[in-house]
Design brief:
about 625 residues, alpha/beta, 7-stranded mixed β-sheet, 18 strands, binds fructose -6-phosphate
């Protein structure tokens, strides 16, 4: 595990990058606990500013662990939370009061009277006074010693949306469109996300003596680049942290990936060249100059900050040729793909398989492989209630008309009744969750039938960590890992396919990845003597594609291949037209994203001077999960 502190010219705030998001949480928790202990030894209090959201959960868990195992006490701690939705009842599922209790306060000994969180349950006429009182209490406590922040994709800190200013104090604010879209999953649908929130102002935050901003996941990489490298602007509130003398930004590799220091380090200074970096630089140079790799000339290198690369490799023509050759070797036609092998395809949700690797799946079928598609979670949380009603009515009609069974016990009507009185964002009953799962399962089977597989090839693992009925999941546990180990032992696969989404440590894909990783450790330890370790193929989820320089296998798809894949994606009807969680600022449907992404990869290869294909899927292959 490594952590690097970068301080190149372009970064306007100190940045600390870790390979592993868990390491970030430990570092931040350590800084907080050191401060608490130091103050305690002097008989003093410490005032903390605290965020909610997915980013700080690891820090709270680590602090709770320190409390339980290392005797860290919080009796001298006073806390002020950054924000709360408005309106919001404190016991609602989405309330930040509830979040803080569940993730932190219920497990440590912060005195009740020291806890402050803005209230979402007051009358509109009381809001201004409440905000002024919040500011007064912060002052009375002596100001904030250390504030921990997350960042939203709108660039907000707290809920200081675009248009906020460095003088702003605690106030009611209207939430940005992107923030409401990102919160939609917590509220089941965007329309249930409150329009407003009460938040500490940028000015309140800037008065803290120490500021720690944390961010993880490549979905936030563009906003982190703006916050860290671009001048202060009210369009991105986080840029105001640049004026603070004691602020630091903690990032994981994925979120740091757009920083110049990580993406094109040669543009800002000296780098240690190796073949991987040289390949990345040459592909970047080709794209920047609009030339194919074979057209690049030594002067292109000199004109684009790559003198050092010229010195390190000497002959740039030879370098370009070897990179071109290397890329060409990575194009695998069907006869170069696994044949007559045992394969498990792990699909986090019941559609990632066809969205991300539908083309590959069809080719693996033609190659006579024994394939099991293992759907790891049941995907129930992303099904609309209306689909449940439709399927229930369908099953009722079939039961009555074809099987001559009536709904004597009223089971169907009682479910319909529940749906009728269900409140916005209420968790479904176990029955409804199961019906939603079956909707997704039947769609998954219909989809793999398109690529030549059948129900016998599908396994529904229904991993327990997913079954909270809410978007926030439980941590992956031994029960999840055991289920995967059992499948590995049963199939003894020669290849496994896994969604390699390394961003969003709390997202379902990342959790599924972690579960497979842990299961493989157990499996490889136990059966390594009898069986070779399975080769691991990593595919990307619906959102991103691998960078060209990282890809190990390009699979060309013809128009017919891509059409078949899209037809398979169509079978996921509950996710079509209007998915529950389409992701902010991307109105495209999943099949459109899959199509665009595969066609874009083909275009990129074409531009680099490789053969021109209709569409291309991309995979990274590894022996051990990275
Ligand atoms: C929450 C808060 C917000 C979040 C930000 C990131 O109290 O103040 O600024 O920190 O929206 O949220 P996550 O961590 O869920 O991506």
């Amino acid at each position: 595990m490594s952590t690097t502190i970068s301080s190149p010219q372009l970064e306007r705030i100190p940045v600390n990058i870790s390979d592993d998001p868990a390491e970030l949480s430990r570092l931040v928790a350590m800084e907080i606990s050191d401060l608490i202990r130091e103050r305690k030894s002097r008989g003093e209090n410490v005032v903390l500013g605290l965020p909610t959201g997915s980013t700080p959960i690891g820090v709270y868990h680590e602090l709770v662990r320190m409390h339980r195992e290392d005797g860290l006490s919080f009796v001298n701690v006073i806390t002020f939370n950054l924000d709360e939705y408005y309106p919001m009842q404190p016991d609602s599922l989405q309330s930040y009061h509830r979040f803080m209790r569940e993730n932190f306060f219920d497990h440590v000994d912060v005195p009740e009277e020291n806890i402050h969180i803005p209230r979402g349950d007051i009358e509109p006429s009381e809001v201004d006074d409440h905000c002024a009182e919040y500011e007064r209490l912060i002052q009375q406590a002596g100001g904030i010693d250390l504030i921990m922040l997350g960042i939203g994709r709108s660039g907000h800190i707290g809920f200081n949306e675009p248009g906020s200013h460095p003088e702003d104090r605690t106030r009611l604010i209207v939430l940005d469109e992107i923030t409401r879209k990102d919160a939609a999953s917590d509220f089941f649908e965007e329309k249930y996300v409150p329009q407003a929130a009460i938040t500490m102002g940028v000015g309140t935050i800037l008065e803290s003596r120490r500021i720690i901003l944390m961010a993880t996941g490549e979905h936030k990489a563009p906003i982190i680049k703006r916050a860290v490298e671009e001048p202060e602007s009210s369009d991105v509130s986080a840029t105001y942290l640049q004026r603070h003398p004691n602020a630091i930004v903690y990032l994981d590799k994925a979120v740091a990936s757009e920083l110049t220091h990580e993406k094109t380090p040669w543009c800002i200074g000296s780098v240690k060249w190796d073949d991987d970096l040289a390949k990345r630089a040459v592909i970047w140079l080709a794209r920047k100059t609009g030339k194919a790799i074979a057209e690049l000339d030594v002067s292109d290198f000199h004109r684009n900050h790559l003198h050092e690369l010229v010195h390190a490799y000497g002959d740039t023509d030879e370098l370009c040729q070897s990179i071109l050759e290397n890329l060409r070797e990575k194009i695998h036609y069907r006869n170069q793909l696994p044949t007559e092998q045992r394969i498990i395809v792990f699909s986090p949700h019941p559609d990632d398989d066809v969205i991300s690797m539908g083309g590959m799946l069809a080719k693996l079928v033609v190659n006579d492989n024994e394939i099991v598609v293992a759907y790891m979670t049941n995907g129930s949380v992303a099904v609309f209630d209306q689909d449940v009603r439709r399927h229930l009515r369908f099953s009722q009609m079939v039961r009555e008309d074809i099987f001559h069974e009536c709904d004597d016990d009223g089971a169907v009507s009682s479910i319909l009744e529940f749906l009728g009185r269900k409140k916005p964002a209420q968790v479904d009953t176990d029955e409804v969750q199961r019906i939603k799962a079956y909707i997704r399962y039947t769609e998954a089977v219909a989809a793999i039938e398109i690529v030549g597989l059948g129900v016998e090839n599908a396994r529904f693992l229904d991993l327990p960590f997913y079954k909270t009925g809410r978007v926030r999941k439980d941590p992956v546990s031994q029960a999840d890992i055991d289920i995967i180990v059992d499948l590995l032992n049963e199939i003894v696969p020669e290849h496994i396919f896994v969604a390699g989404d390394l961003s969003d440590p709390h997202g379902t894909h990342r959790m599924c990845y972690g579960a497979v990783e842990q299961a493989l450790e157990v499996y490889n330890r136990d059966v390594a003597d009898d069986h070779p370790k399975p080769k691991i193929w990593l595919y990307r989820g619906a959102w991103q594609e691998w960078e060209i320089d990282r890809v190990d296998v390009f699979v060309p798809l013809s128009k017919a291949d891509l059409d078949r894949k899209i037809e398979a994606v169509f079978k996921h009807e509950s996710q079509k037209d209007r998915a529950l969680f389409p992701g902010a600022y991307d109105e495209r449907e999943f099949w459109q994203r899959a199509r665009d992404r595969n066609r874009e990869t083909a275009e990129k290869l074409d531009e680099l001077g490789l053969p021109r294909f209709y569409a291309v899927e991309a995979y990274v292959t590894v022996d051990e999960m990275p």
